[in-house]
Amino acid sequence: MPKLSLVVPVYKVQGYLPECLDSILGQDCTDFEIIAVDDCSPDGSGAILDEYAKRDDRIHVIHLTENVGLGRARNAGLEKATGDYVLFLDSDDTLSDGALAAIRDRIDAAGDPEILIFDYARTYWDGRVRPNLRADLLKEEGPATFSLAERPQLLDLLQIVWNKAYRRDFVTRTGLTFPPGYYEDAPWTFCSLISTERIAVLDRVCVYYRQRREGGNILKTVSRKHFDVFDQYQRVFDYLDAHEELAEWRAPLFRKMVDHYLTVLERPGRLPQDARAEFFHRASADYRARVPKGFTRPGGGRGHKYGMLERDAYTTMVSALAAVKLRQRVRTRTRTALNRSKRGAMGAFYQSQLRLPLDDDLVLFSAYWNRSVSCNPAAIDAELARLAPHMRRVWAVRAENAGRVPKGVEVVRVGSREYWSAVARAKYLVNNVNFADSVVKRQGQIHLQTHHGTPLKTMGLDQQKYPASTDMDFEKLLERCDRWDYSISANQFSTVIWERVYPCSYTTLETGYPRNDVLANATAEDVRAARAALGLADGAKAFLYMPTHREYQPGFTPPLDLGRFARELGPDVTLLVRGHYFYGSSPHVDELRRTGRVVDVSGHARVEELYLAADALITDYSSAMFDYAVLDRPIISYVPDWDVYSAVRGTYFDLLQEPPGAVATTQAELLKLLSSGAYDSPETTERRDTFRRRFCEFDDGHAAERVVRRVFLGEESLPPIVPFDERHHAPTPAQALELVERA
């Protein structure tokens, strides 16, 4: 049996769950088991647990068939625990390095206490770490073990279950279980502490308590469920009534009860406004029913609040709270003035448009910082024209790029009156990046964030770990992301990352990427047309070379010698190069262009057509690899600077270990792969299949339809994802030629 059992209840935490599990599995103490309880989570949390369990037999997963809530999920895990000690860890929190070894060692040194209390710290999205303000209570002074009567001030710690290790035979003997409802920690922690004679403390931060920016816990949820606190303290006092020997704790626990009730009343964002009076009267009734004989109220303002509860003086309490709010309003006048100034700077015309009604049939699209009509927004635009032709579809484009817009597309130039009118009045705003900070999210507007690629490199808040790669204002970033109503994902991998690095209150749509529909649905004629548009001869081999940008380089120097490439691969090979204008203007390169051996496709309007035309893709860290994989054609990873890129920019997986196909780290290796044909082998095909199943999970050719039906038409029942092995994908250029010739 293991020394420690960690019970981890799991519900809607797919963005944080891997970090939680990694923090446990990475401990230097290995004498533990994890009992992970999937509380019928509607997201991908259950699948994440199963994947981890496959890799580590210390993880035991319980999948509940209905959602039972945090307390009962903990009970389910507790029943399966076999360790000497039981710990509870919430699935969005993490253990500190060395925490389990420190807990184990302290347990041994203290002679197996029934409860060990350890320290924690709060962590925030911006990297701040705030220590426990009552950490002084955990000083390892005096006897190694003691009773609560010897250190009653421990009741002043935040009464939570996850900062303690409980000896399992003590839990069994006392019959402790978690009740249903909010505030389920209160009966467990209070009843366990007053029941044990052998407590020990560990003056060390063992748990990082995540303060989720977007909420996610009961303390930031407006609900009548906060009335559950009355049932929880009923359980505490029922326990006292059943154990006369614990009568000395009635007064301290009465004080904890009253303080808890007052906290619920005073903190904004908990009780609905129309439920506050009812809550107060119930709290007052509990006060009068349970006040111990001879109880002395605390002094000062806190004591006055106790008195108002005792007298059931709700009107007096409301007046006192109103005075506090007035003082708060006075303190925020400066901030309000600044906000008004900012709004005024947006322009009187925009302000006037914001006062007009929304146009329910107006959709404003943008892509790549208003540079083009492309990517996922363009695919959604096309599908919207098919399914909802009554809607007016408008694109925001910079003035200098307006001439490159396809015919028939309605455009508003960024900064114009027409633009600000559309931003203010459009019911729907669709973008693959964020709209400008000056854009106001109106009530009733729907912002659809499509993203523009599956991430290999770190994104969002994860970029804080790699300051050399960005000077981003992360607070501003999240304010922009707060406007999102929907976030599109092409795979579970992306979903988990987006929800963690953009912690805002949007709904994830696991639809696949709309821009990849054309790759899944293309015919032989589409492939032939794409090649013909580029002047590619039948039977000629075309490699698409798409290197990505390096933030750490002031200018990009191509790691690929184009002249040598063309010379060694011969006249039947054409290199399509898409990227910056980085290959020089030497006469030799110009000659290669004239012969068609090198084709600059950087300005090509639709990258999807380049994918269809190419026999294989050569790239490095670009998200192009994830999209091109939909075609099930060879992908070569040319990564001569992987060590530098991964260290400076940060990546989510090791491309050398999990590539989509062949890998080359030098130009000589790349040329050898291409000239020998080794880039397309059974081994690379197997790698590609694994890669595709992971990253093309939802790309079945119906992504745009799902998005339009869900977001614009309000349909809940969407076309199901086509099983992976039943999907169609476009023929290769060779197959397309054969099919067309047969026809």
From TrEMBL:
UniProt cross-references to CDD domains, sorted A to Z: Glyco_tranf_GTA_type
Superkingdom per UniProt: Bacteria
Keywords for the protein's UniProt record, in alphabetical order: Cell membrane, Membrane, Teichoic acid biosynthesis, Transferase
GO annotations of cellular component type: plasma membrane
SUPFAM superfamilies: Nucleotide-diphospho-sugar transferases, UDP-Glycosyltransferase/glycogen phosphorylase
GO molecular function list: CDP-glycerol glycerophosphotransferase activity
Residues annotated as domain Glycosyltransferase 2-like: 5-112
Pfam families (alphabetical): Glycos_transf_2, Glyphos_transf
Protein's UniProt keywords contain Cell membrane: yes
Locations listed in the record: Cell membrane
UniProt topology in membrane: Peripheral membrane protein
Chief place of localization: membrane
GO biological process, one term: teichoic acid biosynthetic process
Family: Belongs to the CDP-glycerol glycerophosphotransferase family.
Protein name, per record: Bifunctional glycosyltransferase family 2 protein/CDP-glycerol:glycerophosphate glycerophosphotransferase
UniProt organism field: Streptomyces coelicoflavus
Top-level taxonomy: Bacteria, Bacillati, Actinomycetota, Actinomycetes, Kitasatosporales
